[in-house]
Design brief:
Length: about 140
């Protein structure tokens, strides 16, 4: 960047020489570094997943995470714990500063591992001879 302090000098052979300082502050939009992959697979039951979103810009950008299928917002770094199938989905890092539009970068979190039973335990009573349908929600 060309930001910095510049000095101007004027010399007309008459002392003293004139000097001036100019500080230049170059503003530029936020950009997000490729510090995480577009798709991330994690094991079911893993203790914690931590994703750091690194962004640059001037003014310095504010960074946060958003889950695309909900209105949930998360601080940076994104920390999910413990890992289960409910954590699966698209997450988006958002970097914004006041001077320019937002920068965004997505990742898909895929939880792999054993099946998970989503239904709560239940007790169903029926009379002998009655027909009953039992369901079990699994992801």
């Amino acid at each position: 960047s060309d930001s910095g302090t510049y000095q101007c000098e004027a010399d007309s052979s008459v002392e003293p020489m004139a000097k001036g300082l100019i500080t230049l502050n170059v503003l530029y939009p936020s950009s997000i570094s490729e510090t995480f992959d577009p798709e991330i697979s994690v094991l079911y039951g893993q203790d914690v997943l931590r994703l750091e979103c690194v962004a640059d810009g001037n003014p310095k950008p504010r960074i946060w995470w958003r889950r695309n299928d909900t209105n949930s917002l998360y601080e940076n770094p994104l920390t999910l714990s413990p890992m289960d199938y409910r954590a699966e989905g698209l997450y988006e890092c958002v970097a914004t500063n006041n001077a320019f539009p937002q920068a965004r970068r997505q990742t898909k979190i895929d939880v792999i591992g054993r099946p998970d039973v989503l239904s709560d335990s239940a007790m169903i009573s029926v009379s002998e001879g009655e027909q009953v349908v039992l369901t079990c929600n699994i992801s």
